[in-house]
Structures are given as C-alpha cells and as structure tokens.
Amino acid sequence: MIRTVKDLDIKGKRIIMRVDFNVPMKEGAVQDETRITAAIPTIDYILSQGVQSLTLMSHLGDPSKDTKKAKEKAEKDGKTFDEEKHVREKHRMAPVSEYLSKKLGKTVVFGGEDGCFGKKSLIDSQPSGTIVMLENTRFHKEETSKDSSERDVLARELASYGDIFVNDAFGTAHRDHASTASIAKFVPVSVAGFLMAKEVNYLEPIVMNPEKPLVAIIGGAKVSSKIAVLESLLKNASALIIGGGMAYTFLKAQGYGVGKSLIENDQLDTAKSILKAAERTGTQILLPVDHLGAETFDAQAEAHAIDTVAIPDSYMAMDVGPKTLESYEKVILGAKTVAWNGPVGVFEFPNFAKGTKAVAELVAKATKAGAITVVGGGDSVAAVNMFGLASQMSHVSTGGGASLELLEGKKLPGIEVCRKERT
Ligand code: AMP
Fold first, then answer.
1. Measuring from atom 5 of ligand 1, which residue has the nearest CA?
2. E runs forming strands in 160-315
3. What average pLDDT does this structure show over 345-362?
4. Helical spans, DSSP H, in 267-399
5. What gap in Å lies between CA 277 and CA 284, rounded to an integer?
6. Protein residue closest via CA to atom 17 of ligand 1
7. What percent of the chain has pLDDT over 70?
8. For all residues of the chain together, what is the average pLDDT?
9. Which residue minimizes the CA distance to atom 2 of ligand 1?
10. Annotated active-site positions, please?
C-alpha cells in the first residue's frame, strides 16, 4: 500500500505538491481540463486541513524540445516563427494558474515567469491557506537532467518550499525528474495524493497479486512497444487476448498469410517466444480467427469481411471479426480481473470500430458482474471515452506511459518516493 496525504497530520504545514497539469493549450488557453479536475480532490482535502501553504508545481509541455520542433516545422513550411509567442501560448503556467483559480473559486498566487527558484519568501509571506502555482518546471534544465547532482540543485530549492511533499502526478510517475522524485531526498516526508494512490492501488495488484482469473487484453499497433507488458502479464493471466495491429505479427509467426496487414518482421521471433512462454505458463492465447479488412488504410475504406484466419493478399486486417468477438465473450465474462491496454482494431475509423466497441461493452459487463476492470494506455482510454463507457470500468488510468510501465512490473521513481521516509 502506498502512503497518502490522509496518513499524516498536515495542519499548519507547508505542502509542496507535484501535479500533472500538462494540459493541451491553444493560443494561451486551456483546451481540456481533465488533468486539472483530476487533482482537485487532493487539493480540496489539503486545504480543508488548515495547511499554512499549498505550492503546486507541474510541467507544461517541454519548452526546449517542443519549441525546437515547432521552429523547424515553421521553417520547413516557409513560415515566420515567433518564439516568444509560441512559448507564451504553449508553455507558460499563468493561464493554467488562472484556470485553476476559477475552478476552485479561490485565489491562486502565480509564482512568476522568472521560474521556480527563489520563491521561498513569496510562499512563506502569504496568509495561511494560500495556494501558489509555480512556473513550468521544465523551463529549468535541472528538472530533466540525466545528472542527479544537477537535478538535486532544483530539487533542493523546491523542497525548501514545503515540509511535506505530495506527489499526485501519476502521468509523470515514470520520470526520474527533480520535481517528481529527487525532491523527496530533501523533504522530511513524501506521500501520494489521491489520484496517484488510486492509480497505484488499481494497477499494481494486477502484476503483484491479481484476483484470479486475470484476463489481459493487449492491442494497439506494435508488438515492439508491448513486449514487456505481454511478458509481465503472462505470469498471472489465465488468458491473453492479443488484438490490434500487433496480432498480425503473431499470426505471421504461426505461418498464416497476413496480406497487407501491419507487420513487424523483426518481431517474429519475439512473437514466437511469447507464444512458447504462454505454453509454459498455461495461459490461453486468443488471436483473431476472422477479421474486417480494407484494401487501403483509409478512414473511408469499406470494411470487407474475412472469414478465415489467413488474410487474402489484397487486404489488410483492420479489425477483428464476429467469430473472434464470440471467442472473447466467455473469457472476459469469466474473469475476476481484466486488464486492457490497446484497441483491437483501428477504432478511429468508424468502419473498423466495432471490435473495440464490443470489447469495451464486454469489459463493462464484466465490471457489472463484479470483476475489477482496469483500462490503461492512451488509445484504449480514448476508445472507452469515445464509446461513453468509461464510467462502467472500475478504473480508467490517466497515465499512458506510467500505466504501461506499472503493468510491465517496473518500479516507478515518482511512486517509490511515496513509500519511504527520509532517515
Ligand atoms: P498503441 O498506441 O500501440 O496502443 O496503438 C494504438 C493504435 O493502434 C491505434 O491508433 C489504432 O488505430 C492502431 N491499430 C489497431 N488495430 C490496428 C490494425 N489492425 N492495423 C493497424 N493499426 C491498428
């Protein structure tokens, strides 16, 4: 179990909290508030405890990398590039601070555009219960530096703003950065916020000690990005459903014709070794047995039913077919835990969304029947949201990379610091 802010007496304390306010921005305006609202329960709780101050910090895009990319693109398109405007509209935290203030109906003091250093007196001179929002942490190269002593320079400064570090930024929990992990070396105690705790409490047991039977549904484009998660889930899963683009590398590895489907030829051996490992663990593997195909990868392409495992040369498989979906039903509905990462078809194209929608409906049904169902990873989350089924899952993760790494069984720096007390 991870320790949370509820496990401490925080009255009168100064809190320094990492949030994930890396929200999409356009022309200096917040485009989607999901990540802001996700942190509000922790913020509300902290304020309700009568703290001295609550200082929030987050990154907002990566100013140096993103700006370089945007500049190169403008140059390529023959357009002029206003760097200052780009940074102001995309990476400055002031508009996010204002947005949060409106959302909370409470003043949020913005720390200033000059960055995150030298803010102790500003924070400590505020009336009790003030919220301060710091500028984008990634304006400082120390935030993401590979050199830990360099990260420590910023971490030590941020630590001086609080007596307690609260990490609620699950989306960046897999990053070993100054504001997500190094800071914990310099504050007496570090704990998780409620969002972080919820994520960990749903995702970690899937790898450590799931309620069995565990059924894993792994889809998405590429085998290469899912090898570690497949290997990790195999250990406990009674069944592994492999769908999406990656399924066709497995079918090719088994000797089936795959037509023009997405294939990673350099992963054929990996696919074979995963199938072998499943034999050893006694895990049932469900690969597509029929498909919906298209002649071209196109949003308007017509769906052509392919009733065999093998795919004719002129088609690429874009979605799973009805017989495959039938084979999923019993398996998913028989599960006590379902872990889902990645769509089973090109769900962004309406003609090929049927399979992923049916999977979402089956997982929702499993939830109703009492299973713990967890959806992690950007695209499957987008899919359940698109089908309006997110509320029917036990948990929909807010962190793509972080949730994948947890399911891979890795220790995440931003989570591990919430378990330890500084001695
Ligand atoms: P990932 O980010 O690896 O989870 O991949 C998600 C992407 O996989 C989505 O954009 C889907 O459109 C894509 N995808 C799913 N099924 C297929 C398929 N059969 N062929 C090509 N791409 C697919």
1. 220
2. 164-167, 189-192, 214-218, 237-242, 284-286, 291-294, 304-306
3. 97
4. 268-281, 322-333, 354-368, 378-386
5. 11
6. 245
7. 99
8. 96
9. 220
10. 35, 222, 378, 401
Cβ–Cβ under 8 Å, residues 250 and 276: no
Domains, the chain, with CATH or none = 5-195 (3.40.50.1260), 202-407 (3.40.50.1260)
Alpha carbon nearest to ligand 1 atom 23, residue: 245
SS3 content of the chain, % helix, strand, coil (to 5): 45, 15, 40
- Tokens linked to 324: 């495959």
Q: Is 309 helix (H, G, I), strand (E, B) or coil?
A: coil
What are the DSSP calls for 236-249, one per residue? TEEEEEE-STTHHH
Residues whose beta carbon lies within 6 Å of some atom of ligand 1: 220-222, 225, 244-245, 262, 317-318, 342-343, 345-346, 348, 377, 379
Per-residue model confidence as pLDDT tens digits over 158-179: 999 999 999 999 999 999 999 9
pLDDT of res. 421: 59
Structure tokens of 114? 């000059």
Best residue among 222, 262, 375 to mutate for probing ligand 1, ranked by most atoms within 8 Å of CB: 262
Structure tokens at 302: 């017509």
Q: Are 132 and 119 in contact (CB under 8 A)?
A: yes
Which tens digit of pLDDT belongs to each residue from 244-267?
Answer: 999 999 999 999 999 999 999 999
Q: Using the structure block, give the residue that is written with the tokens 């301060």.
A: 132
Give me ligand 1 centre to Cα 244, in Å.
Answer: 6
Q: Which pLDDT tens digit goes with each residue over 205-239?
A: 999 999 999 999 999 999 999 999 999 999 999 99
Cα–Cα distance between 141 and 129 in angstroms, integer? 31
CA of 183 to the centre of ligand 1 (A): 37
User: Tens digits of per-residue pLDDT, 110-120?
Assistant: 999 999 999 99
Which ligand 1 atom lies nearest to the CA of residue 346? 12
Does the pLDDT of residue 423 top 70, yes or no? no
Cα-to-centroid distance, 379 and ligand 1 (Å): 8
Q: Tell me the CA–centroid distance for residue 232 and ligand 1, in Å.
A: 21
Residue with tokens 């809190």: 15
Rounded Cα distance between 170 and 199, Å, is 7
Rounded to whole angstroms, the Cα distance separating 32 from 30 reads: 6
Inter-residue contact 126 to 132 (CB < 8 Å): yes
Ligand 1 centroid vs 91 CA: distance in angstroms?
A: 30
